[in-house]
């Protein structure tokens, strides 16, 4: 009797946003319970969604850089929204972190990692940049090094300069690196 070995491949759909796709509207609350709706930022030139963590050392290495980017681009019509999707971080921890780091942008809580899953965010820090139509124009890292002294590529900054000067974003996707988002199953 011949025996056959059958390989069964199970395809599990992995949802993630591709360059050019539109981000559907969503509402999240910050650590004080204030609701923020993505569509409230439609008048901005760009919207930067920053997936961050209060506990990840890689994300924390970028705290000052995120504030500097906000300072450089906010007055040019770029909105910044921090999003914490980690199920292991409490509202109190998220608030304390945002206050201690003097974040100038709202930090929203993505309970049950709904928005992270919708966009395909998997690490902190990870960035999604949307144009004024809420289409994804850049996804990936802030820059290429956790250590500010070793940066050779300013990916997010380059994308934002391109948007505010009416040019095409030079690189639409880079590989984000950092700590995995601690998701609920």
Q: In a few lines, what is going on in this structure?
A:
With 185 residues, the chain is α+β, with helices and mostly antiparallel strands. Helix content is 23%, strand content 21%.
Walk me through the structure.
The chain has helices at 57-61, 63-73, 91-100, 114-119, 155-164; strands at residues 27-30, 35-37, 46-51, 78-84, 107-109, 123-124, 126-131, 136-140, 179-180. The chain has 185 residues and is of the alpha+beta class.
Number of strands: 9
Span of the ends, CA to CA: 43 Å
SSE order, as H and E? EEEHHEHEHEEEHE
What percent of residues adopt helix (DSSP H or I)? 10-25%
Question: Which residues sit in consecutive blocks of at least 5 with pLDDT less than 50?
Answer: 5-14
The best one-word shape is globular
Supply the helix-strand structural class.
Answer: alpha+beta
Q: What is the spatial order of strands in the main beta sheet?
A: 2-1-5-4-3-7-8
Sheet having the most strands: 7 strands, mixed
* Assembly level: single chain
Question: Which radius of gyration do the C-alpha atoms yield?
Answer: 18 Å
Which strand-content bin applies to the residues?
15-25%
Average pLDDT, rounded to a whole number, is 91
Number of helices: 5
Question: Which structural traits does this protein have?
Answer:
two-stranded antiparallel ribbon; about 180 residues; alpha+beta; 5 helices; seven-stranded mixed sheet; 9 strands; single chain; about 20% strand
SSE blueprint and pairings:
Elements: E1 27-30, E2 35-37, E3 46-51, H1 57-61, H2 63-73, E4 78-84, H3 91-100, E5 107-109, H4 114-119, E6 123-124, E7 126-131, E8 136-140, H5 155-164, E9 179-180
Parallel strand pairs: 3-4, 4-5
Antiparallel strand pairs: 1-2, 1-5, 3-7, 6-9, 7-8
């Amino acid at each position: 009797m011949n025996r056959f070995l059958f390989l069964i491949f199970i395809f599990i759909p992995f949802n993630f946003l591709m360059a050019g796709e539109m981000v559907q509207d969503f509402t999240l609350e910050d650590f004080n319970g204030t609701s923020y709706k993505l569509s409230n930022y439609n008048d901005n030139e760009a919207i930067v969604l920053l997936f961050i963590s209060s506990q990840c050392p890689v994300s924390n290495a970028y705290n000052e850089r995120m504030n500097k980017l906000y300072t450089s681009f906010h007055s040019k019509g770029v909105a910044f929204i921090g999003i914490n999707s980690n199920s292991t971080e409490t509202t109190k921890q998220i608030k304390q972190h945002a206050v201690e780091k003097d974040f100038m942008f709202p930090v929203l809580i993505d309970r049950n990692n709904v928005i992270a899953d919708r966009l395909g965010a998997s690490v902190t820090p990870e960035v999604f940049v949307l144009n004024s139509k809420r289409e994804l124009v850049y996804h990936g890292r802030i820059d290429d090094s956790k250590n500010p002294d070793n940066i050779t590529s300013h990916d997010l900054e380059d994308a934002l300069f391109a948007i505010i000067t009416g040019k095409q974003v030079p690189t639409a996707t880079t590989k984000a690196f950092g700590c995995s988002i601690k998701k609920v199953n």
